[in-house]
Amino acid sequence: MREFIITRATESDIKEIVLIDRDCLDGFWSETSYLGELENDNSEFLVISAGGEVLGFACVWFYCQEGHLIVFAIKPEYQGQGLGSALLWQILHRAHHYGVEWVVLEVRVSNTRAIKLYEKFGFAAIGTRKEYYADNGEDALVLWCKGVHTAAFKDKLVKQRQEIADRLQGRGWLWLERLKQLQHS
Ligand SMILES: CC(C)(COP(=O)(O)OP(=O)(O)OC[C@H]1O[C@@H](n2cnc3c(N)ncnc32)[C@H](O)[C@@H]1OP(=O)(O)O)[C@@H](O)C(=O)NCCC(=O)NCCS
Predict the structure, then answer these.
(1) Is the pTM of this model over 0.85?
(2) Site to substitute for ligand 1 among 54, 74, 119, most atoms within 8 A of C-beta
(3) Angle CA(18)–CA(56)–CA(13) in degrees, nearest 5?
(4) Does the C-beta of 82 come closer than 6 Å to ligand 1?
(5) Which of 19, 106, 110, 168 has a CB 3.0–4.6 Å from the CB of 173, allowing a cystine?
């Protein structure tokens, strides 16, 4: 069984994060941008890692009642095992903890894999942004997940966590929890 944890990103993670960004997000952000996120008080910048290897990362900005998921990726060789679900779960858990009412994000209309994952967590489309992506002029679908601050949402999260952890265990992954840094309560 391989253990993994989800923690806040630190400077020592950035080089690996930039490589994953290049592979998964076509170089969405530079090393300087990621380093800047470490200093951004409105940003929750998380990494999922195992034995010191960064498996993926996510960055969400919190403003007023809103969380905005800006970047989210799992290293290609680790995709499809449930690790993205664990990280998205943690993002939504942090959003509930911060008391925001909804989480919003943009995703390429062609990115059916990510869209399916978001829908599983209750995200729904609220519109499109035309030619949002500069590289190929692709439209972005705007998805949001509402009611994040409610007790019902928290109950749903608790159930989902067990399902995700069980599935991961079936793939040989053990989700270590109760880190001081990211209490689940
Ligand atoms: C999107 C991403 C983060 C998901 O991470 P992941 O670890 O593969 O996700 P999971 O293994 O938890 O899969 C969760 C769900 O995603 C969908 N999914 C995963 N692999 C899929 C595939 N090959 N085809 C279609 N759907 C797939 C499914 O809905 C799956 O749930 P299921 O297996 O119960 O059907 C990852 O694919 C990635 O980094 N992609 C490139 C970067 C990216 O697109 N980021 C999002 C930008 S908005």
Answers:
(1) yes
(2) 74
(3) 50
(4) yes
(5) 168
- Please give the distance, rounded to the nearest whole angstrom, from the Cα atom of residue 98 to the centre of ligand 1: 25
Q: Output the six-digit token pair for 44.
A: 């929750």
For 145-182, how does the pLDDT look when each residue is reduced to its tens digit (9 = 90+)?
999 999 999 999 999 999 999 999 999 999 997 555 56
Catalytic-labelled residue, pool 98, 106, 132, 133? 106
Distance 81 CA to ligand 1 centre (A): 8
Token representation of residue 93: 């858990």
Rounded to the nearest whole angstrom, what is the distance from the C-alpha of residue 116 to the centroid of ligand 1?
7
Whether 104 and 141 have beta carbons less than 8 Å apart is answered as no
List pLDDT tens digits, range 83-120.
999 999 999 999 999 999 999 999 999 999 999 999 99
- Evaluate: CB of 165 within 6 angstroms of ligand 1: no
Closest atom, ligand 1, to C-alpha of 107: 48
CATH number for the region 2-180 comes to 3.40.630.30
